[in-house]
Predict the structure.
Amino acid sequence: MNFVKKHPLLTAFLIPFFICIIICIGNGVYPFGDYCLLHMDLYHQYLPFFNELWEKLRNGASLMYTWNIGLGSDFVSVFAYYLASPLNWLVVLFPKSHIIEFIELLIIFKISLSGATFFYFLKEHFVLLGKDNRYHDNTFVPAFVFSTAYALSGFVAAYSWDVMWMDVVAVAPLAIVGLEKLVRDKKPVLYYVSLALCILSNYYLSIMLCIFLVFWFAWLFFTQKGGKMAAIVRFAVYSLLAGGTAMVLIIPELIILSYSGSSGIEFPKQIEWYFNLLSEVGRMCTTASVYEGAENWPNLYAGAFSVMLLILFVLNKRINWKKKIAPILFVLFFMASFANKQLDFIWHGLHFPDSLPGRQSYLYAFLVLTIGYATVRKWRGIRLWHIGVAVVFASALMAVSTMFADEDVTEYYAVIISILFVALYGIMTVLLKLAARKNRELLMVITCGIAIVELAVNMAVTGLGCTGRSSYNANVDDMQKALELAKEDAADNDVPFYRVEDTGRLTKNDDTRYGYASGTQFSSLMNINVSHFYQALYMEGGKNFYCYNGATPVTSAMLSVRYMVTKSIQPQNELTTLVGKCGNHYLYRNNYTLPLGFMMDEGVIDEWKPSSSSKIYSINSIGRLLGAADDTLTLTECTQDENPGTTTLTFDHDGYYYAAYDSCSTDSLTFSHGEYETTYSKTTHRYLFDLGYVKAGETVSVTNTDADAVRFNVYELSIAAVESAYNTLNEQTLSVDDFSDTHISGHIDVKQAGQLVLSIPSEKGWTMKVDGKDAEYEDFSDTFVSIHMDEGEHEIELYYETPGLKAGAAISAGCVGVFLLLLLLRQIVKRRSRLKRTVTDSECTDRQRILFIYAKHRMFKL
């Protein structure tokens, strides 16, 4: 106990830390087994982006742009959205093979830090140190329960893998303490630094924190006895300065987001409720499964005791009823915010989240735990009948919630477990009330121990989800060998820039995982115009991803995809050439590949109108316009046998074939014939399936795990049409002389005036020079950088600079400067005030001394 009292913040850190470590050991997380904490987007996005950050830091590459995220992406915005935590820079100290472990340590550290910062909030907000400068057991020990509850809340159990969100969760208690010091003590440093750090680390969750801070300030304002107008000014000034300090990242991020599928704001006009408010109580239950879907159910767990304490807060006699109104209304407002469409829209930054709902629930946990601790602080105001009412009412609320929520959302066993814990807390609190003073401390420690166990059990059951580490890293060595072989082959053929695709990709960000340029990405910052372009050509695309799946040879050539990595050998054909085998992988070179830039006739560009509603026509029309005599893809007949789980396609002549289903609910299809086998994932996204080269009489087997009977439309590829279109585009191409992250230079001999099209997404940031002079570029199909070129030889240069970075940096520097200036002025005013007081005190002392001497003199005379 002495250690705990001497190091309370460290203790508040270590309790959730050891709980997480024990859970990881129990789950067999490496090095205690073959699992890791990769889950959802951490698996598909964050880890690959950490790899790219590691590469750039280790190799001194530019942080402005990367070619290893899809067709090319601004990296400052990726950094701002996913990687901005100052702790992430430490990744450079780890070997690349252990970046997974680095992220796991970050997750556990931030969870544990949340416990320490919440304890600090309780210490400052409730003034836990007594006049003797000591903590007292009746409030000190329970504080560890509440700090652990914040660190292991339902939000953390559900979203701790969103490692960039956890910075805000950990620092938010400091920002709230800072706000209280700003308003009451006129001390701005903690508020400014913590809020600026939150916004810099993750602007998205900070939006919710800023909304919460407005409400918290309103409560402070109305409870402030004087200096209210000055408090408003301080709150406004330092909030703006904190926000302005983050502009170095926010402005570039907002500019790049304007190209994404999340751009635009459309406020919902009709009032809509997702579910009954009573059903939300079930989401507070112990071991209730975390929800990450699209039906908006929030993760509200903060300990079963928190529900009971909310009721005791209302009943507590020692808490003035006027002080109960604002907290209870705030809780009800939160409950309504999770269920109401308009409020949900506002909390999430004027957007609806794509799954992972109720992202403000970490603040709900903060609020209910603060109320709960206030109840414990006023323990003497609780009567025995209050405890009975709280136990019965809390249990009834949990039981009734199951009538309004699906069992998949709130399981019956979770309600039963929660009711048992509430009953146990009821028994322990009654014993605490009835026990002699000498026994209360032991009973309190036991009660707190039960609460810690409850929190640990909930985290073990619902949080820290795992996946296989070896399976995630299974292809690393073979892919690296394949990429080295591609690099050697490209060097031998004097090709400075090319893209690679992997038919067996594990994620849509494998390019970032392994370090190669590709035509695929999954990111919230993805350029939506590229996705639209892909979808119009029957490729895979969506709101936050685009993928090479579905590409035909012509579109593949336009995207400069030179190499393909496969896990099975392909039948010999005219489209590809085997470069070599790398372990269990094969590297193929596409025989039809264009450089980064190629000329197109402006008449072709004006006439070609790609449409996602006529995808085959879009493919065929571009081929025809480029000189092909035949359609690139022609609907063909084949013998088709559909059975649950398997469809067979038998062809009567040799050819290169593609297929598209009529309808399909399964999300994975495997195509195989002979030694060739390819599995396509996310097949409900509707894209073309490449069957490869099939010989006459050969049967292609298509299997799915959902026992669907799937029928296909089959198309035969015309090699003659491909070659004709390719030759037209290949007549005038850009020769790249120099290539880096942010600079491209090359030359081109234009024989016929037209548009130079580059397979680079058109976004602000690129500047172009033609023959040494600045030139304004255009957009090809609203998607790619292009520019008109006259006949003759031309030198081309492109430079990239993150848009808004300089302006943002200037604003950030200005805000830091203003903050430091205000601190300096504050110190000057304080010093003068102190000096004035000292002089006044000195003068008073001299006057008193003279009067004392005079009085003595008068007495002596008498």
Notes: The longest strand covers residues 792-800. The two ends are 66 Å apart (CA to CA). The CA atoms of residues 25 and 31 lie 9 Å apart. The longest helix spans residues 805-861.
